[in-house]
């Protein structure tokens, strides 16, 4: 009997549109696919499992171990503003973050200038531009601040150099070491979301651009650039801002360059010297903590 080949299903075309986490499709992004390999039983036993994105099982184990640290930061419930995005608060946006995943050897890794300098040079890339540690330090400074622990931080968004936008919940406890942070970022950019252990709450997830659709209507958007001609004292500057408006601070998380966003209403400089992203954020949070009398 001749096999009816016409019944065989057609291959689906790959969707090349922007990849981001969808609440209803989250299960589609999780799971293992066993790699088929030719050879004897010894080769099959040594074959590693891979994720759909090409991440090896060893990479996944490292990322899962890092997830164990995402237990959450304790907040002062008496002073917590609440989860309503329309209530006054603070939102941080880290722009041009150097968070890029590439296949180095047999596994996918988060590129950085220290571990992948030779790989970057071979691919005609400047190693000085691959600094994910800048984003790590900036995120830690935001989440560790008394401003966040008092419940004033409404949201934290990070947009990579490649334009991938993801959200980090204010109560997330980011790994302290860079190696474990790299494992978390690798998992996030591959799976598109990271949930709490044993729960359904998503602590980090890739979301759809642009970031302006997630900002409150009554928000004031402020960008920071050393090249700005408007040099201000941060404590005096925040004292003049409307208490009823949500403040959105846009800070660059790259080694060199400046941010240029159309939605930013005011570009300011807070020092006569170039500052790192982490120290710039420290000055911002300190000024806001003094304004709201957070000790």
UniProtKB/TrEMBL annotation:
<keyword id="KW-0808">Transferase</keyword>
<protein>
    <submittedName>
        <fullName>Ribosomal biogenesis, methyltransferase, EMG1/NEP1</fullName>
    </submittedName>
</protein>
<keyword id="KW-0694">RNA-binding</keyword>
<keyword id="KW-0949">S-adenosyl-L-methionine</keyword>
<dbReference type="InterPro" id="IPR029028">
    <property type="entry name" value="Alpha/beta_knot_MTases"/>
</dbReference>
<dbReference type="GO" id="GO:0070475">
    <property type="term" value="P:rRNA base methylation"/>
</dbReference>
<feature type="compositionally biased region" description="Acidic residues">
    <location>
        <begin position="23"/>
        <end position="40"/>
    </location>
</feature>
<feature type="region of interest" description="Disordered">
    <location>
        <begin position="1"/>
        <end position="58"/>
    </location>
</feature>
<comment type="similarity">
    <text>Belongs to the class IV-like SAM-binding methyltransferase superfamily. RNA methyltransferase NEP1 family.</text>
</comment>
<dbReference type="InterPro" id="IPR005304">
    <property type="entry name" value="Rbsml_bgen_MeTrfase_EMG1/NEP1"/>
</dbReference>
<dbReference type="InterPro" id="IPR029026">
    <property type="entry name" value="tRNA_m1G_MTases_N"/>
</dbReference>
<keyword id="KW-0699">rRNA-binding</keyword>
<dbReference type="GO" id="GO:0019843">
    <property type="term" value="F:rRNA binding"/>
</dbReference>
<keyword id="KW-0489">Methyltransferase</keyword>
<keyword id="KW-0690">Ribosome biogenesis</keyword>
<dbReference type="Pfam" id="PF03587">
    <property type="entry name" value="EMG1"/>
</dbReference>
<dbReference type="GO" id="GO:0032040">
    <property type="term" value="C:small-subunit processome"/>
</dbReference>
<dbReference type="GO" id="GO:0070037">
    <property type="term" value="F:rRNA (pseudouridine) methyltransferase activity"/>
</dbReference>
<keyword id="KW-0698">rRNA processing</keyword>
<keyword id="KW-0539">Nucleus</keyword>
């Amino acid at each position: 009997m001749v096999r009816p080949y016409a019944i065989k299903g057609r291959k689906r075309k790959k969707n090349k549109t922007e990849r981001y986490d969808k609440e209803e499709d989250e299960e589609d992004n999780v799971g293992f696919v066993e790699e088929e390999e030719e050879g004897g039983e010894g080769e099959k036993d040594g074959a590693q499992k891979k994720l759909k994105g090409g991440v090896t099982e060893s990479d996944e184990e490292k990322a899962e171990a890092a997830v164990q640290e995402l237990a959450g930061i304790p907040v002062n419930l008496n002073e917590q503003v609440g989860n309503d995005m329309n209530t006054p608060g603070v939102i941080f946006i880290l722009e041009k973050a150097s968070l890029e995943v590439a296949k180095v050897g047999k596994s996918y890794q988060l590129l950085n200038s220290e571990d992948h300098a030779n790989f970057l040079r071979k691919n005609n890339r400047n190693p000085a531009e691959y600094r994910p540690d800048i984003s790590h330090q900036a995120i830690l400074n935001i989440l560790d601040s008394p401003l966040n622990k008092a419940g004033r931080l409404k949201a934290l968004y990070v947009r990579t150099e490649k334009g991938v936008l993801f959200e980090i919940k204010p109560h997330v406890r980011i790994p302290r070491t860079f190696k474990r942070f790299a494992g978390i970022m690798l998992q996030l950019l591959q799976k598109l979301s990271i949930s709490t252990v044993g729960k359904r709450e998503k602590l980090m997830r890739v979301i759809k651009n642009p970031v302006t659709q997630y900002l409150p209507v009554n928000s004031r958007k402020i960008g920071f650039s050393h090249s700005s001609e408007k040099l201000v004292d941060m404590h005096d500057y925040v004292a003049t801002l409307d208490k009823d408006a949500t403040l959105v601070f846009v800070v660059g998380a790259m080694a060199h360059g400046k941010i240029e966003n159309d939605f930013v209403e005011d570009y300011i400089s807070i020092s006569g010297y170039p500052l790192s992203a982490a120290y710039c954020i420290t000055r911002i949070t300190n000024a806001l903590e003094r304004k709201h009398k957070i000790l």
